[in-house]
Design goal:
The chain is α/β, with parallel strands linked by helices. It contains nine helices and twelve strands. The chain has a domain at 2-152 and 185-217 and 262-277: NAD(P)-binding Rossmann-like Domain (Rossmann fold, 3-Layer(aba) Sandwich). The protein is 41% helix and 17% strand. The chain has a six-stranded parallel sheet with strand order 2-1-3-4-5-10, with helices on both faces. Strands 6-9 form a two-stranded parallel ribbon. A two-stranded parallel ribbon has the order 7-12. β4 (96-102), α4 (125-139) and β5 form a beta-alpha-beta unit. The termini are far apart.
Amino acid sequence: MSRILITGGSGQLGTALARLDWPAGVALDLPGRAELDLADPASIQAWLAANPPALILHSGAYTAVDKAESEPDLAMRINGDAPGLLAAHAAAAGIPIVHVSTDYVFDGSKPAPYDEEDPTAPLGVYGATKLAGEQAVLASGARAVVLRTAWVLSPDGNNFVKTMLRLGAERDSLGVVADQIGCPTSAHDIALAMQAIGRRLLSDQAAPTGIYHFVNGGAASWHDLAGFVFARAAAAGRKTPQLNAIATADYPTPARRPANSRLDTAKIARDYDIHPPHWHAAIGDILNILLERQTA
C-alpha cells in the first residue's frame, strides 16, 4: 500500500485531490490542522515519523494575501518553513514531493507570460514567503517538483467566482478590477496535474524535477472573469448586476498584486505531456456545479 500525504486537505486543492480517482493500492492521508499543523515544526515532524508517506503532495498554505501583511511570521512559518521541513523529510526518506507555489513570486512587470526561468520579485509578504518555500524545497536535495499556479477556483472554499455569484445576487452594480491580468485556473485541473506528476515521480526515478508552471489556457482580467460568471448566471436565470471596470488604484488593498501574472505552460507540456484546457471550459464546469447547487 502506497500512502500519499496531502497537506491542506480541507482547502480547494486538497479537496480536489481527494475527489480524484486513484489507483488500487494507494491510500490518501489528509490530516487536519489538529493532526498536522503546518505552523508547528514539532507537529510536522511527529506526524511524518508516525505516518511515513511514499509521496508528499503539499497543497497546504497560508493564502490570506492581505492578512499576511500583518502576520508575516505566521505566513513564513507556514509558507516558508513548513515546505522546507517536508522536503527535508522527503530527501532523507528518498521519496518525492510536489510543492504548490504561486504567480505572486513575480512582480507583474513583464509584458508577456512568465516562464520558469524569469527572475522572481514578489511585491508582498505572501509572495515572499511562498518564494522562500520554493527555495527551501529546491535546496533540500529531495526529488521535488515546484508547481506554480494562479487564480485558483473551485466549487469549494472561498474564491472569486463564488464571491461574484453572491454579490451579483445582492447588488445592482459592481465594480471589478480590469487592469490585473492572469490565468483563471481550476483546482480540479491543478489536482490532475499534481496526480500525474506525483505518479510519474513514484514510478520513474529519472522523472524531471524543478520548477513548472500550470494554469488553464488563455488569460483574463478580474473584470473579464466576472463578466464570464455573470453571463453564465444570467443564462441560468439568475439576477446579475451592472458590471463596471475599475482600476487597481480604485480598489486599494494592504498587499500589492502583480498587474500581469500570466504563466507560460510550455515546459510542463514538453516534460510531462500535460496540456491545460482553456479557462472558459474549466471555469464553466465550476459554474455548472455552483449554479446547480443554487437550484437544488
